[in-house]
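Need a sequence for this fold. Nothing fancy.
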């Protein structure tokens, strides 16, 4: 699943926002707080951070993510992993920001999305316990995720355009 928005500033103005893990926490209705792990203090491939999440349906939970791709001004990607497999484990989910310059480079198309990874996680466990409700469970979770992605994109746009000179 991926959503997009156009922002009236060039990618180099949007990049510092999307590559800062705190930006998503500021704007997401679900991700509320983040912190770097293992002495990391910024995004580099392999660095890990924890995310503290909350929503009315699922309650509260924490995740561990590792930076998987960092292509300045173009792509920022992290993988949610089982906390005991932060270095080598298959991801539960993969989250990506993709920046694309538009027109003369003064605008940016920002895409933000997620896809399920190879590892099985809580959603698969829940569906396995309620196979007769699989479609409703997945549709409900996707709707929550889409709303969160749209809210995060709107927040990044507002931040980026409010700092435009």
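Here you go.
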């Amino acid at each position: 699943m991926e959503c997009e928005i156009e922002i009236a500033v060039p990618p180099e103005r949007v990049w510092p926002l999307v590559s800062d893990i705190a930006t998503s926490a500021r704007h997401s209705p679900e991700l509320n707080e983040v912190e770097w792990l293992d002495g990391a203090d910024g995004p580099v491939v392999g660095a890990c951070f924890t995310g503290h999440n909350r929503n009315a349906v699922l309650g509260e939970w924490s995740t561990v993510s590792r930076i998987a791709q960092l292509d300045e001004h173009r792509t920022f990607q992290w993988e949610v992993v089982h906390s005991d497999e932060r270095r080598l484990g298959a991801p539960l989910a993969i989250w990506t920001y993709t920046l694309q310059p538009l027109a003369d480079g003064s605008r940016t198309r920002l895409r933000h999305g997620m896809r399920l990874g190879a590892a099985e996680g809580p959603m698969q466990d829940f569906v396995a316990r309620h196979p007769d409700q699989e479609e409703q469970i997945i549709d409900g979770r996707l709707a929550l995720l889409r709303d969160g992605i749209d809210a995060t994109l709107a927040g990044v746009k507002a931040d980026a355009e409010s700092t435009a000179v």
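For context: Residues 66 and 137 are 27 Å apart (CA to CA).
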